[in-house]
Amino acid sequence: MPIINGHYYSSVGRYSAYVSLQLQRYQFAQANQQYLNQVSAAGDAFASAGTNLATGLAQIAAQSAVTRAQSAAAAQAAKTPSTVDLTSLLNSVNTTA
Fold first, then answer.
1. Residues 15-52, buried b or exposed e (16+ Cβ, 10 A)?
2. What values do phi and psi take at 3, rounded to 5?
3. Taking the complete model, does pTM exceed 0.85, yes or no?
4. Are 24 and 33 a contacting pair, CB within 8 Å?
5. CA 15 and chain centroid, separation
6. How buried is residue 92: exposed, middle or buried, by Cβ count under 10 Å (0-12/13-18/19+)?
7. CB 9 within 8 A of CB 2
8. I need a surface site. Which of 53, 54, 66, 93 has the fewest CB within 10 A?
9. How is the chain split into domains, by residue range?
10. What is the pLDDT of residues 3-27, one digit of tens each?
11. pLDDT, tens only, 72-95
């Protein structure tokens, strides 16, 4: 069976009904396989995109949590007076009676 531009041609004339159906079945199977390959590739792309999204969001959340913790620590350090400040405050309040 010679193939020209993806079509099958008989060198002896028309194909029998059986051979025509077999060729049609083969072509449908090829088209179905191509479709399944494309769907599989699309599914893999969506799964990869979902994984990348989840990973990226987790990284952003972790960075935000670290920034909040650092800010809270800096604010707490700013609120808590140091020992030197307390000593100067006590010396200024200390009155001998």
1. eeeeeeeeeeeeeeeeeeeeeeeeeeeeeeeeeeeeee
2. -115, 125
3. no
4. no
5. 51
6. exposed
7. yes
8. 93
9. 3-93
10. 666 666 666 667 778 888 888 899 9
11. 888 877 776 555 566 666 666 665
Residue 22 phi, psi (nearest 5): -65, -40
Amino acid at 32: N
Closest residue by Cα to residue 26 from 5, 50, 7: 7
Take residue 4 and report the two structure tokens written for it: 């020209």
Q: Which residues contact 2 (CB under 8 A, 6 or more apart)?
A: 8, 9, 11
Residue 8 CB neighbours (<10 A): 15
Rg (CA), the chain: 39
Distance between CA 58 and CA 50 in Å, rounded? Answer: 12
How is residue 16 written in tokens? Answer: 């029998």
